[in-house]
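Entry, Tuesday afternoon. Goal for today is a structural model of the target with pyridoxal-5'-phosphate bound, before we commit to ordering more compound. Inputs were pasted exactly as handed over by J.K., no edits. I checked the ligand SMILES twice against the vendor sheet because last time a stereocentre got dropped in transcription.
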Amino acid sequence: MNIDTKMILNAQKTILGIADNTPLVPSYFISNLIQEECLLKLENMQAIGSFKIRGAMNAIYNLPSNIKVVTCCSTGNHGRGISYAATKKGIKAVIFMSTLVPKVKIEAIKSLGAEVVLCGRNQVEAELACQKFAKENGYIEISPFDDPYVISGQGTIGLELLAQRSDVKSILIPLSGGGLAAGIAIAIKKENPNIKIFGITMENGAAMHMSLRQGRPIDVTESPSLADALGGGIGKKNRYTFTLCKKFLDTTITVSESEIYNAMQTLYFEDRIIAEGSCVVGVAALLAKKIPNLKGPIATIITGRNVDMSMFTDIINGNDIKLGDTVLKGQCYKSYNLN
Ligand SMILES: *Cc1c(COP(=O)(O)O)cnc(C)c1O
């Protein structure tokens, strides 16, 4: 299936009125700090707290009408999107998640009426269980990223962004399986190939980043991260996103756990935004000056807000955070003196 602008325009019609057109707001603080205009695309304001509603709605509403059950594996936000869309359409959803998924996300999915199966110590193990379950029962599995309707649903962000600010020069996109980055990049590069697109991910399990460097989809060891929604592999049998990211992303970059920690604090104290670790990796890359010669206006996607609030308040208070067997050293936020 060829994923192009036409497919993204169709997705835009399908999700109209459900996945909202989100604001693109300037961050004066970050703009001042880096001396380039920085814009935040606030996908944290979507109904289910993340952009994943776009791809999930588009995938569910394009299913053949005889399909009454779907399944998926998720780090939380895709599952929430699928549950929301399935309930709206009156079909059943069974969501597989690993024990790395925060409790807030699991509870939210249950409350939307989906069946939850918790299994596996990480995303890769949960994914294998989900595949087996789908095969045994003849259910359709909707990938969180490697699905043409999911990719084109996420791509609607690219069309919106261009309509809001056609003068944008660089876009920083949180990157995991690559559905979000691929979708946005298709929409953007077709319109203006000079706009630079960067995929940003965490050091603790950068599957797409490492796969692109190796030239083929590879598995990486995953360890607990503040960016839990960026976990999981890209699949050894990746069909779409590996090729698309290879073709359309200018480069990919990783950020560390303490850079993510600092970015969560910064967005909270300076822009009053509550965001998940996964959503601030673009901001983390800007604050840590990871990309040389970056041209503004720069946009980054604030992909969601579904963070565990007790962990979030710990970060805001500068406390240490336990990540599996390791401890991430906390630090109280000191506002930069810009004068
Ligand atoms: C899924 C997700 C991403 C990454 O999207 P991919 O399409 O897997 O690259 C980024 N941020 C949040 C909050 C997510 O839920």
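The longest strand covers residues 196-202.
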